[in-house]
């Protein structure tokens, strides 16, 4: 009888539960939901506003949902800016820069991780130090160098200074250190060249890191504003979509077409969002692997 009572009485140290979920987990889930709502609200508001009429966008108190969603603002964007040309310019900048960063980061990361040479640690420390420089510090020197090379007012001037990235090299080096040396030695014994080892042996082993770096680099250079604005020097034919959106902002001041600005911004964020959907699995895997490795 004593044993039965002992098993049926509630434990004094048992944590309170709510519908099978402990209180601590319920608090965590609530915080996650709140953080997700706060993070997603500007994006949702932008899309909803792009579908409203001009009267609804200027209404006070604000109208949360359009009464009759329409795409008029999206049609008007093409009348104010050259959407197609701006998208092509952004794609050229983001794709070429991302591809170059992946190649240079993979090769440099492999050298720092697997080669032993004099001054390696010092050189890597200097490389890491450049990650902490504010971009505004290097703006003028890079601008002068691009000018000496005759690349001002061109997409080449936007792309060339960003062909390598210190963060990318650091990320690749950390992941490549985990590739077994025996695997690389076996490839060398089979007669594989160093380039073949990098791109056919090492690269598949660090694919989550490559995907994460591709996502970071593409989004950063797609959204880059200050450097392209400085280098292109008013050459509007070469403007990427982010700079072209500034023309929508000036247009908005006179016509009060907030929906027009929101439509342009919605179009501008679509490519990075689509890329994130495709690379989300690799991105999460790389974050998890980074957390496990510490």
UniProtKB/TrEMBL annotation:
GO terms for biological process: transmembrane transport. Signal peptide: none annotated. It comes from Paradevosia tibetensis. Gene3D superfamilies: MetI-like. The lineage of its organism: Bacteria, Pseudomonadati, Pseudomonadota, Alphaproteobacteria, Hyphomicrobiales. Part of the ABC transporter complex UgpBAEC involved in sn-glycerol-3-phosphate (G3P) import. Probably responsible for the translocation of the substrate across the membrane. PANTHER family: ABC TRANSPORTER PERMEASE PROTEIN MG189-RELATED-RELATED (PTHR43744), SN-GLYCEROL-3-PHOSPHATE TRANSPORT SYSTEM PERMEASE PROTEIN UGPE (PTHR43744:SF8). It comes from the Bacteria. It is a multi-pass membrane protein. Keywords: Cell inner membrane, Cell membrane, Membrane, Transmembrane, Transmembrane helix, Transport. Belongs to the binding-protein-dependent transport system permease family. GO terms for cellular component: plasma membrane. SUPFAM superfamilies: MetI-like. The chain crosses the membrane at residues 26-48, 87-110, 122-143, 155-176, 197-222, 259-279. This is sn-glycerol-3-phosphate transport system permease protein UgpE. The complex is composed of two ATP-binding proteins (UgpC), two transmembrane proteins (UgpA and UgpE) and a solute-binding protein (UgpB). It is found in: Cell inner membrane; Cell membrane. Coiled coil: none annotated. InterPro entries: MetI-like, MetI-like_sf. Its main location: membrane.
